[in-house]
Design goal:
alpha+beta; 16 helices; globular; protease; 39 strands; Alpha-Beta Plaits; six-stranded mixed β-sheet; metalloprotease; 22% helix
Amino acid sequence: MRSSPRRTRRYAAVLALPLALTLNALPVLADPSPQPVPPDRASSTAQDGVALLRVVVPDQAAVDRLVALGVDLAEYTKPVDGGIEVHAVLSPGEAQGLRDQGFDVRDAISDQGDYAANIAERRQALASAAADAAETDTLTPLRAEWFTSLDDQRFLSVEVKSSATDAQTVLTAAWDSGPGTAPGSGGTATMSRFTDAGQYMYHRFSAPIPVTQAPTKVTVTSSRGGSVTVPVTKWLGEKRKPPSRHYVSDFIDHYMDPTEVTGRITALAGQFPKVAEIVDLPYKTNGYRRAAQAQFGTGTGAAAASTFYVSSRAYGSEGGNDVSLALVKPGAAGTPLSVAVTGKNVAVTLATDASGAIGSTAAQVVAALNGDAAASALLTAATYRGNAGNGVVAEAPATRLTDGLLAPTTVSRQPFQMKALRIGKHRDGSKVGVFLYCQEHAREWVTPVTCVETAERLLRNYAQDAATRKIVDNLDIFVMPTANPDGGHYSMYDYNMQRRNMTNHCPVTNGDPGRRNSWGVDLNRNFTVGSVFDGYNGATTTCTNDTFAGPSELSEPETRNQVWLVDTFPNIRFAMNTHSYGGYFMWPPGAYKTAGRETLPRADFGTESFFWNASSHILSAVQGWRGTAIWPGRTGPVVDVLYSAAGNSADEHWYNRGIIGWDFEVGADVYDQAAKQYRAVGFQPPFEEGHEEAMEFSNGQIAILEVAREYGEDTHKPDSRLKELAKDDTSATFTFTTDEPANVYYTIDGSRPTLSSPKLAAAGMREGAQRITVNQTTEVHWFAVDIAGNVEKNYKPDGNGDNYNKETVKVRGRR
């Protein structure tokens, strides 16, 4: 597969990625409560079982009481359901004494077992550090690049890996100020140690360093004695043919809600029927709708026991907003609790005692409402967040329930019909398909207008721009501007930080109106590959968490629609999931298991090289709008440059269908030259900034289409070479290079190479091609296959021909 529209045949640079880069003793507590004692807590009574325990108290006065009692409290306090959580160092006897006084003493945070594990880990770390200190470390350069961003400000980015992984190893970089200048004349800086999931990855600058001149070389030295000097190459800036004078762009002038962007692509399909159509996706969303609710009582502190809430049976938009509830204090003593319903108005007459005081508790009112046939047909009632509800309620006037939704009437409250715009002259599955989708996360307002801008450019330039016509004539493009329409509406009109969809999977213990901004599923955690249900990190099964993966994989209609699309149109070979913010360009794998940082299988080296090669073309296009450069350190597999995202869509499409998928995070940090620091732009920057982000990343989406078109037209067969790297009297080391991203299959036992033969791998994360060592003179046989499936020299791996490559690697002194 060719690397860019203007392909150059260069061997060595393709398969070698560019250089860039005490705890206090806390013994085990034997829990004196009647609850079962976990096995890891039951075995030790060291130091009388003293441990750091959670204690939940109702208010600050109770905290003060603990202090007055002389309890050893940690400097920690946190509001929780039911009051305030504090942490106390207690023996079993002290814990029981507090329980006897009515304090809610809960589980242990840490104990002697934790202490022992920490001490053992510390000893191991000290031993490792001592061993490392005894010898000079080896530095492996990963990347060293300079680039420009915005206003032509220059920056330097360096990544280097030390063989000494301990935190005491310090790396320092020094660079020149251009050709012929002295080492260090450009500046020096200490590098940051980058760790992930507790594992050392490499050293880097925490952010690219601004420089006045483009360096040619950088020298990195280690406090352990290691040193390496590498050339500094230019990152991005690929020369691109300027758009034709007829090319038009900039079709957006405001943020759009999902109804508007869906209407926009529908109108485009109607205007350009020869090259576009709408695909109605089969699964309608739950809709921008909720039950109407009302809460009685504040739910704070002791008042939680007197608090309850009600939810309408019907959605608010379907009659729930017309339901009302009143809590009536009768004018007589000794009145029983009763419920009356008139139309949609519910009245609870509270019980009174002999003195005429109200005696109905929250639990009793809840039971009465749920037990009355007429009332329960209109609403359900629940105590506050699982509270027993034994507090007496107060009278309240008739209160109308409300769904609280604020969108205008132009936003339908019914299940949303998701749509994709299909663009292409030949929409019959014969052309390579590309899936561009935006706004999986509701609060990312720039992304849907990015997709709309791309669709507008493709269709409105088709008639007059030859480059656009080549794209549309030779690809089958699917544009989904909003993958989360319900959440998108909620973010724009109700709660701007909404990330998830609007489907409420929480039980009644998390169903009160105060949780209304905490419901929904993170759609980019709801897919089937590397999910939280498979043990991967970066999602949760807690329904109120922003990375809630849902009750099961593909539980949501929005995610099922994506899967349906790529399954229904198997010609889709490329995908781009556009998110915000931070300025990233990423690809699979996107998830790992924290223990051992076990990632999903990495792409083979040829595919990884394709990802890297394409990034130059795509990110240069992004840079072409206003100069924004996506940092080298924010380019690469998701797990290497961001975090683990269990159950994300790019992994779904890549591992299940082989779809080459990327992730954009629009909204790169902007460097403030006056303040000499980077500033983040956020999810919803002022539209002036959001517009620029949409324009530059629409450039990037168009460049992805160019890469896909080239893939579809690629008939070039790769050329590969064996490159010797080192040789002595006992061994020789070599690797392979190719003129384009390709996989190399080889044998060193004299046999005929096939697709089952060893495949050239990566030397390590961001480290380039594998180095192969032989200990005797060896005839190496090999061939290369590019990403499009073209085989070098038309060799038939499953046949019996011998037109593969052959070369003898000689070892001096051995035959």
